[in-house]
Every structure is written in structure tokens, then in C-alpha cells.
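# step 3/5: fold
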Amino acid sequence: RSSKMPACVVQSSLTDGSRWWMRNNEPGSDPYFAVHLVGCVDAKGTVLVKDENDNETRVPARLLEGLLYPMNLDQQPDCSLLAHLSEAALLANLLSRDGLTLPYTTTGNVL
């Protein structure tokens, strides 16, 4: 193995220091919170993330699981990030947002 290769598995877009929105499953709180990656994806497929309060946690790096979304510094993620997912995932997201009494849209109009 070349000495220039990183010690962990490399995955595009999951780079050290990159910023993401992470799904927050705590009741009564914001649905997403800002995190940044510490290091890169390890051999187990997890990545260490740190929030604004310096709390660290390991999460699976698979982006399609709904845990991490690329950060748009202007707003939290919305349904537009789900355009590439299946209809079942979109429906699950709509039902979840409705259950949390959050606004949601499929056509650009708030339903």
C-alpha cells in the first residue's frame, strides 16, 4: 500500500471538515442540526461527526439513509433533497413531516 493513501476508506463528498445537516430524532427539537465531519469514513463505513456544542458521534456514512444531508448554509434541508429517492421514501418523509406538524411540499406549494 502506498504511504500516500489515507488510513481510512475514501468516499467522495465525505471529507474531513465538510459540513452537513444531520437528522435530529429528539422530540420537540429542530428536525436537523449542523455537524461537521472529523476525519474520513473508516473501514466499518462510519464517520465521526461533531456538532456546534462539540458533541461527537459516529454515524453510518451511507447518505441515502436519511442521516446526513449536504449543507446549504442558507436553509435546513427540505423535500427537494429527496428527488432522487424512491416514491416510498418520499411518502415516508411526507408522513413524518406531517406527523411533526412541519410544512412540506411536492410541487413548490405548501400543502
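# step 4/5: annotate
The longest strand covers residues 32-38.
# step 5/5: archive (pending)
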